[in-house]
Write a structure and sequence with these properties.
With 380 residues, this protein is of the alpha/beta class. Helix content is 23%, strand content 33%.
């Protein structure tokens, strides 16, 4: 990625998809060039949380909401230490932010962090194209001396694909750290950081859990060195088929019977640990308005998603695994994709979406209480 940050608003920009489709607009954020996987997010709010979600590493995010940036950027809502998207695509950027919490414009923040974006694009047409053709590699090029279309397309097609990408260690913490419990400490949890969002350990801390966040490279011995009452595997980017180390660590946890909870990438890791396969979705689920049914209660939740891969597990039966019986606990009502797994003979479960509710909605917050109940049951 090469970038500059001066005078972006009037600079021409071009978006080139690997199938040859081209969209023209204006630079938004930094000026330069960037590459990644083109995906779309359907959330109408929460763009700051989206940008700072490590699960978006090496992806160019297309916002389906036409008007973006209207609340600016604040210093409280970031989900990690930086913006992780490799590029950003909007139709109509806000000219002036309107929020008492705003400290700077979204355009300024993108430029300051070197994120190349494009505005003035027909994002509805682009999203429909991705729905029909599937997520694909893309490049954004901006500047007053753009390469010719053939050169840009060739560069896009040379960019790495998401299939086979092992990215968790690139976004995870390098050193372990502790998020203390709020109020009385009730439990200790070892959280394996595969791309964790800041709100996740906060939600556990609210419930009296002291959270030890460990690097993606943590071993089983590292996990149990903190004497955990439960183990958590976080969300994160990349292809779960590459995550052999995380799968091995999770199997070690399952063998010991420690209460276990995984979300998003952690759900895919549990699927692999149980012997199920994973596969790449055509265009994935991203946004804060995805309907999911909890099959254990029949309740339908509106949930926050960010994933391009899914677990290949049977929806219509209980499966035998090396760790006992397992079943699909949650399913997406849009397309019947597996959205959760649970073991029936051990205290372990996972969901494919983001129950920490950053940004919104709060329908799935009960899952953290379910994790607490597993630890209470194990202690009893």
């Amino acid at each position: 990625m090469t970038t500059s940050t001066r005078g972006a608003a009037k600079v021409p920009a071009v978006l080139v998809l690997e199938d040859g489709r081209i969209f023209r607009g204006r630079a938004y954020g930094a000026v330069g060039e960037t590459f990644g996987e083109a995906v779309f997010s359907t959330g109408m709010t929460g763009y700051q949380e989206t940008l700072t979600d490590p699960s978006y590493h090496r992806q160019v995010v297309v916002m389906t909401a036409p008007h973006v940036g209207n609340t600016g950027v604040n210093d409280e809502d970031a989900e990690s230490r930086r913006i992780w998207v490799s590029g950003y695509v909007v139709r109509d950027p806000a000219r002036v932010p309107s929020s008492w919490r705003s400290r700077r414009t979204l355009d300024e923040e993108l430029a300051a962090q070197g994120v190349v974006g494009i505005s003035g694009v027909d994002t509805r047409a682009l999203t429909r194209h991705l729905r029909e053709r599937g997520a694909m590699r893309v490049g954004i090029f901006s500047g007053n001396a753009l390469p010719d279309e053939g050169t840009m397309l060739a560069e896009v097609r040379q960019a790495p694909e998401m299939n086979g990408a092992d990215l968790s260690a690139e976004v995870a913490t390098k050193e372990a750290y502790v998020v203390p419990a709020q109020g009385e400490k009730k439990f200790t949890v070892a959280a394996v950081d595969l791309g964790i969002k800041g709100m996740t350990p906060y939600r556990m801390a609210e419930r009296g859990i002291e959270v030890h966040v460990l690097p993606a490279t943590a071993t089983v011995d590292d996990v149990y060195a903190v004497d955990p009452d439960g183990v958590f595997f976080s969300n994160g980017p990349g292809d779960p088929a590459t995550a052999d180390h995380a799968v091995s660590v999770m199997r070690g946890v399952l063998e010991r019977g420690t209460p276990l909870f995984g979300i998003c990438f952690g759900n895919q890791i549990l699927g692999r640990a149980l012997g199920f396969g994973t596969y790449k979705l055509k265009y994935g689920h991203r946004g804060i308005n995805q309907p999911v049914q909890d099959r254990t209660t029949g309740k339908v939740e509106v949930t926050a998603h960010n994933h391009g891969f899914a677990v290949d597990a049977p929806l219509d039966k209980v499966s035998d695994t090396p760790f006992g019986r397992a079943e699909v606990s949650h399913v997406c009502l849009n397309d019947n994709v597996v959205e959760g797994l649970q073991l029936l003979d051990r205290p372990a479960f996972s969901v494919q979406y983001h129950p920490e509710a950053a940004a919104g909605p709060h329908d799935a917050a009960y899952l953290f209480d379910r994790f607490v109940s597993l630890m209470e049951g194990q202690r009893a």
